[in-house]
Amino acid sequence: MNIYDFTLEDANGQMVSLADYKGKVVLIVNTATGCGFTPQYKGLQELYAKYAKDGLEILDFPCNQFANQAPGTNQEIVTFCTINYGVKFKQFAKIDVNGKNESPLYTYLKSQKKGVFGKNIKWNFTKFLINREGEVVARFAPTDTPEKIEPKIKELL
Fold first, then answer.
1. Is the pTM for the entire model greater than 0.85?
2. For a 10 Å CB count at each end of the chain, is N or C smaller?
3. How many domains does the chain have?
4. What range defines the domain where residue 112 resides?
């Protein structure tokens, strides 16, 4: 099993197979528009602009499970990210990353790489780095900025 086995709804209501990202280096991030880490969108977009041509994809999964910091509709979130951070990478529909309604993708990601506090996602802007074969190779904490993880991304590209 790998990430290519999952299909998820994007922010426009279309189903997207993660198999579409075969052969790419993928960074999966659970995000929020009203979080102290929200400014990381800027760094994520900079990484995407810099490395997309080399095969980097960033997949944004808004999550409202942490202090209701991702309010609004999927389209409101997309508009916020576009206006404030110029986001061009793929944005998906809101999901749960923990608990009984968690996305099967996150069940899988967490089974592959535990965090400092165990399996569960501690907060928004937890990041999973996937190699070109669809394998989870690293998990980064919300405090790990896009700039800090750039060397690991470059290594996989």
1. yes
2. N
3. 1
4. 3-156
Specify whether the CB–CB gap between 140 and 127 falls below 8 A. Answer: yes
Helix axes 40-51, 146-156, angle to 10 degrees: 20
Which SS3 state, helix, strand or coil, does residue 8 take?
Answer: strand
| Tokens 């280096």 belong to residue | 25
CA gap 60, 70 in Å, rounded: 12
Pairing of strands 127-130, 25-31: antiparallel
Q: Could you give the residue ranges of the DSSP H alpha helices within 52-145? A: 74-85, 104-112
**From the candidates 25, 29, 35, 130, which is the catalytic residue?**
35
35 in catalytic set: yes
Which among 103, 153, 157, 99 has a CA at the least distance from the CA of 127?
A: 153
